[in-house]
């Protein structure tokens, strides 16, 4: 079986943005692909959340890039980025969705940095 690994040691909480340590690893099997995701526990909100890509993929790259840029480069909270995205496209983007885009972006940055250091 094919396995995709989306585990992260730390991830920001989708509700308050606090960097949370991994609590456990969750396996999701979808379309004969096993996805490994991290489950994080926010000590501030006292809630669990998972990271990883949005397997449904409802939004296009432009919306995704814009939301990620708002969070990473402009330092917006996920809540504000969600509201700004709604203003821009007239469609609500859930916090968890933006959160997973940001996580994917950060993971790509790490992978790119690792490739660059190997070259
Ligand atoms: Zn939180």
Task: Fill in the keyword field for this structure.
119 residues, alpha+beta, five-stranded mixed sheet, 3 helices, 5 strands, 29% strand, globular, binds zinc ion
Number of strands: 5
Output the structural class.
alpha+beta
Give the rounded overall mean pLDDT. 86
Helix content: 40-55%
- Report the order of strands and helices: EEEEEHHH
Low-confidence parts, pLDDT < 50 over ≥5 residues?
none
- Alpha plus pi helix count: 3
Give the names of the bound compounds. zinc ion
- In angstroms, what separates the terminal alpha carbons? 31 Å
Provide the gyration radius in Å: 15 Å
Question: Summary?
Answer:
The protein has helices at 61-72, 78-89, 95-118; strands spanning 2-6, 10-12, 19-30, 33-42, 47-50. With 119 residues, it is an alpha+beta fold.
Characterise the protein shown here.
The chain has 119 residues and is of the alpha+beta class. The chain has one domain (2-118). It is built from three helices and five strands. The protein has helices spanning 61-72, 78-89, 95-118; strands spanning 2-6, 10-12, 19-30, 33-42, 47-50. Helix 1 (61-72) packs antiparallel against helix 2 (78-89) and helix 1 packs across helix 3. The structure holds zinc ion. Zinc ion binds at residues 13, 15-16, 18, 42, 44-45. Residues 13, 15-16, 18, 42, 44-45 line the site of zinc ion.
Q: What topology does this entry show?
A:
Elements: E1 2-6, E2 10-12, E3 19-30, E4 33-42, E5 47-50, H1 61-72, H2 78-89, H3 95-118
Parallel strand pairs: 1-4
Antiparallel strand pairs: 2-3, 3-4, 4-5
The chain binds zinc ion.
């Amino acid at each position: 079986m094919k396995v995709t690994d989306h585990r992260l040691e730390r991830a920001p909480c989708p509700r308050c943005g606090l960097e949370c340590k991994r609590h456990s690893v969750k396996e999701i099997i979808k379309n004969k692909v096993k996805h490994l995701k991290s489950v994080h526990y926010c000590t501030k909100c006292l809630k669990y959340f998972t990271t990883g890509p949005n397997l449904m993929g409802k939004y296009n790259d432009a919306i995704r890039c814009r939301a990620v840029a708002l969070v990473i480069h402009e330092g917006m909270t996920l809540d504000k980025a969600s509201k700004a995205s709604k203003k821009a496209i007239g469609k609500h983007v859930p916090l968890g969705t933006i959160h997973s885009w940001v996580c994917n972006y950060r993971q790509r940055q790490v992978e790119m940095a690792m490739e660059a250091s190997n070259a």
